[in-house]
Every structure is written in structure tokens, then in C-alpha cells.
């Protein structure tokens, strides 16, 4: 019997995670069964259990890939571009809904909470390394607030629909530069989906 390559094994594992991510984003963790993941992936139940022993293991695997990239520098242009990317991922792939579910599930699952804590710590460290020289003394506090506000923007997208990132960009830059937030950051621009319960 020919030996299965590592590339093939990795591709199959990713196929399962992609299928699970699609189901979780659209239906939630609680309403997604292993049978649903089997149907979405097109693989057999035996093939899936070769890579994951339970749905919780799949949830953890999805979470490990859901951290997302941060801006490469802390300028208004790069931060705005990063939030626009988060916005596009929420609109096109339901990513914000998936992240919201991961956070909720992490409150109940110790293994998932460990992954989320590690991801948040890595994000804070990455942001702290980008803090301008004149704010280096406050790098840890800036990183803490920056990551928290980015997470808040993702949560707002998950709950409210399409939210203008401009006020969040302004507030994030105020955190980075150590200046009072400009007036536009105090106004929330809410572009609700037509037909939403609280739309005008």
C-alpha cells in the first residue's frame, strides 16, 4: 500500500477544519454535529476521526487558525486597512460571528480558553513591539488597550452587522499616540443591515 504523504494528511485535516468553520459560522457550535461536519466536508466519519477524536478538538483546531493578522505598523493608514480587512472577513466569511462564538465557548471550555489566552498574549506582544519609541514606556498598556478595542470592533460586527471602522481607527491611534480621542471617535456610525430589528 503506497505511503500517504504528509502534504496529503495536512490537506485532509485542513479540509475538515474548513468544513467545520463554515458550519460553525453559519449555525453555531451547539447546533453543529459531527454528522454536519461530515456532510460539509464530503469525507467519511472514519476519515474525520482519524484526525480529531471529538467535536471539541475540531473547535480548538478552528480556534488555533482564527487569530487573524495584525497591522504591520501602527500608523493611521495601516490600522485603518487592518480594520477594513476585519470588516471584509466579517461580511464575506462570517469571521466575526465565528470569533464571537469562540470567545463564548472559551468561557466554558478550559482547553479552548488556553488557546484563546495564548492567542491574545501573542497579539499583545506583537502590538507592543510596534509601539513608537516615544511611547515605549507604556508599550504593555497600549498593547492591552489596542487588542481589547480591536476585539470589541469584531464583536460589534458580529452583533450589529456592518459598522464603520473610522471611529475605531481614530480611537486606536489616540491610544497609540497618547492623545485625547478626536471627535469622530466619539460618534458611532452604525450601518445596519436592511430589515434588522433596530434599523430605522
List keywords for this structure.
single chain; 200 residues; mainly alpha; Arc Repressor Mutant, subunit A; Tetracycline Repressor, domain 2; 2 domains; two-stranded antiparallel ribbon; 9 helices; elongated
In summary, what is this structure?
With 200 residues, this protein is mainly alpha-helical.
Protein architecture, described:
Keywords: DNA-binding, Transcription, Transcription regulation. This is Transcriptional regulator, TetR family. Residues 184-200 have a biased composition (Basic and acidic residues). Residues 10-70 form the HTH tetR-type domain. Residues 33-52 bind DNA. This protein has 200 residues and is mainly alpha-helical. The protein has two domains: 1-52, Homeodomain-like (Arc Repressor Mutant, subunit A, Orthogonal Bundle); 55-177, Tetracycline Repressor, domain 2 (Orthogonal Bundle). The chain contains nine helices and two strands; from the N terminus they run ααααααααβαβ. It has a two-stranded antiparallel sheet with strand order 1-2. Helix 4 runs parallel beside helix 7 (110-128), helix 6 (95-106) packs across helix 7 (110-128) and helix 6 (95-106) packs across helix 8. The longest helix has 22 residues, at 6-27. It starts with 5 loop residues before the first helix and ends in a 9-residue tail after the last strand.
